[in-house]
Design a protein that fits this description.
Blueprint lengths: L1 H6 L3 E5 L5 H7 L4 E6 L2 H10 L4 E4 L9 H8 L24 H4 L5 E4 L13 H13 L4 E7 L4 H12 L3 E5 L2 E7 L12
Parallel strand pairs: 1-2, 1-4, 2-3, 4-5
Antiparallel strand pairs: 5-7, 6-7
Helix pairs in contact: 6-7
């Protein structure tokens, strides 16, 4: 919350829509806050209470039980190339997000979805990878990324691998914070420092 209060108004992307969403949007007054949610009925329920929240329905094509295979894929060269996620050859890259997500340089991203607590859930593998890719692909500056539930294996391993230990800032109450700089200038930066 300290980072949001410091950067607001800013561009704030949240994977997940919850009871706290109105608070996040209010703290970013004057900025743009977008929520991505996997449950259409939940979006409709929250919009009844908070119709001004900008939220989008997202379908994820992965399952938690695929995490080891996806980690192996993520270590390949196609996944180390910094490009727009829509044209990435990496299978971890989320290509079906709304254009509103790809067309903004995000100052802060919170990864608190999709569901990831059982084997058949979508898991956060693609959300974590794509967040890191978008942060590196911004024109300049840096993106603060927060990953919730890092006590779980997927969130722990994928955040370390794709948001990178070298960009780690702090961890508090199952939320890990990374600050990822643009990799466009200079373009010679390694994917992970």
């Amino acid at each position: 919350m300290r980072v949001l209060l410091k950067k607001a108004p800013c561009n704030f992307l949240v994977f997940g829509l919850g009871y706290d969403s109105f608070m996040w949007a209010a703290l970013n007054h004057g900025g743009r806050t977008i929520f991505l949610e996997e449950d259409q009925s939940w979006i409709e329920q929250i919009k009844k209470k908070h119709p001004t929240l900008e939220s989008y329905y997202v379908v994820y094509g992965t399952k938690v039980h695929q995490a080891d295979e996806l980690m192996e894929i993520g270590m390949g060269e196609d996944c180390k190339i910094v490009v727009d996620p829509r044209v990435s050859k990496c299978k971890l890259s989320l290509k079906g997000l709304p254009n509103e997500v790809y067309n903004v340089e995000w100052d802060i991203v919170m990864v608190d979805a999709p569901t990831g607590y059982h084997d058949e859930a979508p898991g956060r593998m693609g959300a974590i990878y794509t967040t890191g890719l978008m942060a590196r692909n911004r024109e300049d500056g840096e993106t603060d990324v927060f990953v919730h539930n890092v006590d779980r294996v997927v969130e722990d391993k994928f955040s370390q691998a794709f948001l990178c230990e070298g960009y780690f800032r702090e961890e508090e109450e199952m939320i890990r914070h990374f600050t990822i700089p643009s990799h466009r200038n200079p373009s010679e930066r390694p994917f992970c420092p």
